[in-house]
Amino acid sequence: QVQLVESGGGLVQAGGSLRLSCAATGRTFSNYAVGWFRQAPGKERELVAAISWNGGSIFYADSVKGRFAISRVNAKNTVSLQMNSLEPEDTAVYYCAVDATRFRSQATTSVGLYDYWGQGTQVTVSS
Q: Residue 47's closest CA among 81, 74, 23, 76?
């Protein structure tokens, strides 16, 4: 089992920044790819960014490229999502998730491959 806890969400004005963190406990977090997803009201959950177990492969959704940055510190069992130049369209509940297949070489982009999920943190961007 892997337990995930997100933090860092909040209310910010358009153009502002937030840094989300995902803290993991349980199984060896450093072996697994991690993704950040978001879900806005009435919309499907979408992958925002993902990072492979060693950080060697990173994926960003087109909507956040150049504005968001995902990173991980395996020694601290954390993955972060730095969000800059936030837009009202970024408003959503943000979730981190773990793909528990060890040492996958590529960042995991298929939602069906994620095995563990956090409870989510709300991000609201006002115009």
A: 81
Distance CA 26, CA 20 (A): 20
Query: DSSP E strands: which ranges in 8-109?
Result: 10-13, 18-26, 33-39, 46-51, 58-60, 68-73, 78-83, 92-99
Q: How many residues does the chain have?
A: 127
1: its two tokens:
């089992």
Amino acid found at 122: Q
**What pLDDT, in 10s, does the model give residues 54-83?**
999 999 999 999 999 999 999 999 999 999
Return the pLDDT at 27.
Answer: 72
Complete DSSP assignment for 70-94: EEEEGGGTEEEEEE-S--GGG-EEE
Is residue 27 a contact partner of residue 3, using CB atoms and an 8 Å limit? no
Side chain identity at residue 104, one-letter code: R
Tell me: pLDDT of 12 over 90: yes
pLDDT score, position 26: 80
Dihedral (CA of 124, 126, 20, 66) sign: positive
